[in-house]
Design brief:
- With 192 residues, the chain is of the alpha+beta class.
- The chain contains five helices and ten strands.
- It folds into two domains: 63 residues, lambda repressor-like DNA-binding domains (434 Repressor (Amino-terminal Domain), Orthogonal Bundle); 111 residues, Sandwich (Jelly Rolls).
- Helices cover 26% and strands 29% of the residues.
- Strands 1-2-3-10-5-8 form a six-stranded antiparallel sheet.
Length: 192
C-alpha cells in the first residue's frame, strides 16, 4: 500500500471494509472483537482517520489476520515482486515504515515484511492471539529491543528471534539511527 497520491488512508479503509465483509462481520461485530469503538472503525473505513500501527493491530486481531495480511496487495500472481512494486506504509504515531516484500497471490503460507524503525521510536501491540501463526524478527541494521510479555531481548544486526502471537510485544529502537529488520510470518495450513 504505497502512497503515491496521498490516498493511503482511503486504501486502508477500503481494504478493511472488504476484509470485514469477507468475514461476514458488521461494524458492531468487529468493534466488539477488536475492542475498538464502532465510530473509530467507521472513520477508518471512510478514510477519515490515519490509524496507528497499534490500532491496526487491534483491528487485525479482531479479524484474525496479521498486519501483513491487511497490507497485502492483490495483484496478478507472480513469483517475483520488484522493490518498486512493494507496498509501504508509515505509522503516523512512531514513523515506522512497513514494506510488504512477499509476492502476493502465490498461495504461500509465509509473508515477509521489511520494517524501518526510527531512532527512539516505540511500537506496542497487544497480544493478537492468532492460532496457527508465528513470526521471526531478523535484524539487518541497528539495535532492536523487544519486550515480549515479561521477557526482554536485545537484538543486534544479524540476530533473529522467534515468537508467537500470544503475548503483547513492544518494539523499541534505543539507538541514534534507524533499525531495519524483517518480519517473517508463517501461517500453518492457511494461505497468506
Amino acid at each position: 500500500m504505497s502512497d503515491p497520491d496521498g490516498s493511503i488512508d482511503q486504501r486502508i479503509g477500503d481494504r478493511l471494509r472488504a476484509l470485514r465483509a469477507r468475514h461476514g462481520f458488521t461494524l458492531d461485530d468487529l468493534a466488539a472483537r477488536a475492542a475498538v469503538s464502532r465510530a473509530m472503525l467507521s472513520r477508518i473505513e471512510r478514510g477519515d482517520s490515519s490509524p496507528t500501527a497499534q490500532l491496526l493491530g487491534k483491528v487485525c486481531a479482531g479479524l484474525g489476520i496479521t498486519l501483513s495480511e491487511l497490507f497485502a496487495d492483490e495483484p496478478e500472481p507472480s513469483p517475483v515482486r520488484r522493490r518498486r512494486d512493494q507496498s509501504a506504509w508509515r505509522d503516523p504515531a512512531s514513523g515506522y515504515i512497513r514494506r510488504n516484500v512477499s509476492p502476493s497471490g502465490t498461495g504461500t503460507t509465509v509473508s515477509i515484511s521489511e520494517v524501518e524503525l526510527p531512532p527512539g521510536a516505540r511500537v506496542a501491540f497487544d497480544s493478537l492471539q492468532l492460532r496457527g501463526a508465528d513470526q521471526h524478527i531478523w535484524v539487518f541494521d541497528g539495535v532492536l529491543e523487544l519486550a515480549i510479555g515479561d521477557d526482554r531481548h536485545r537484538l543486534d544486526a544479524g540476530d533473529c528471534i522467534h515468537m508467537d502471537f500470544a503475548r503483547p510485544v513492544t518494539f523499541l529502537n534505543p539507538g541514534r539511527r534507524p533499525v531495519r529488520y524483517a518480519v517473517v510470518i508463517g501461517r500453518r495450513g492457511l494461505a497468506g
